[in-house]
Design goal:
Largest sheet: none
Number of domains: 2
Protein name: Holin of 3TMs, for gene-transfer release
Helix content: over 70%
Shape: elongated
Order of helices and strands: HHHHHHH
Organism: Azorhizobium caulinodans (strain ATCC 43989 / DSM 5975 / JCM 20966 / LMG 6465 / NBRC 14845 / NCIMB 13405 / ORS 571)
Structural class: mainly alpha
Number of helices: 7
Number of strands: 0
Keywords: Membrane, Transmembrane, Transmembrane helix
Radius of gyration: 25 Å
Strand content: under 5%
Length: 165
């Protein structure tokens, strides 16, 4: 069970804003608030669903929470929708190369490794010709790509705030 499967139940109980937020990318955050409000044993979808099913005052609690904080949830939902629209616009204007080169390079490395370590030995055994890439080159290509891709993310997460200045 996930938070989005619980969203329709929350909407049926008269809290449409909370249900909408619960079914979106904010599901975990909204779910924790619901767990606290309903006194659930844990902040998991299962525990909140059980609290909704067993608490006779669940509907009143959810409606009171929505009345109290619905403007916050609506503004966060709208901000999320605006961000999603901005990302879609950015991807559409910059083209596929802007975001697709990293996965393409990763798949290329996977293909080279697969060809060298899985496919090439079989072809060599069947036809007697070596078609594999030398192991040192495969390891070199993989190491360079992992350094660029993984290392770049690590540098960005460690020094990102300093580099942005």
């Amino acid at each position: 069970m996930d938070w989005s499967s619980l969203a329709s139940e929350v909407i049926k109980l008269g809290a449409p804003v909370l249900g909408t937020a619960l079914g979106g990318p904010l599901g975990g955050s909204v779910g924790k608030v619901l767990a606290d409000t309903l006194g659930a044993t844990a902040d998991t979808p299962e525990a909140v669903a059980e609290a909704v099913a067993t608490d006779p005052q669940a509907q009143e609690k959810l409606q009171a929470l929505e009345a109290e904080r619905s403007t916050e949830w609506v503004s966060v939902i709208q901000a999320g929708q605006a961000l999603a629209a901005q990302l879609a616009t950015t991807e559409a204007t910059k083209g596929a190369f802007h975001y697709a080169w990293r996965p393409a390079m990763s798949w290329l490395v996977v293909a080279i490794v697969g060809q060298t370590f899985l496919l090439a030995p079989w072809i060599s055994a069947l036809i007697g010709k070596s078609v594999g890439t030398p192991y040192d080159q495969v390891l070199g290509i993989s190491a360079v790509w992992l350094t660029i891709y993984g290392g770049g993310h690590t540098v960005k997460s460690i020094f990102g705030a300093r580099l942005a200045r």
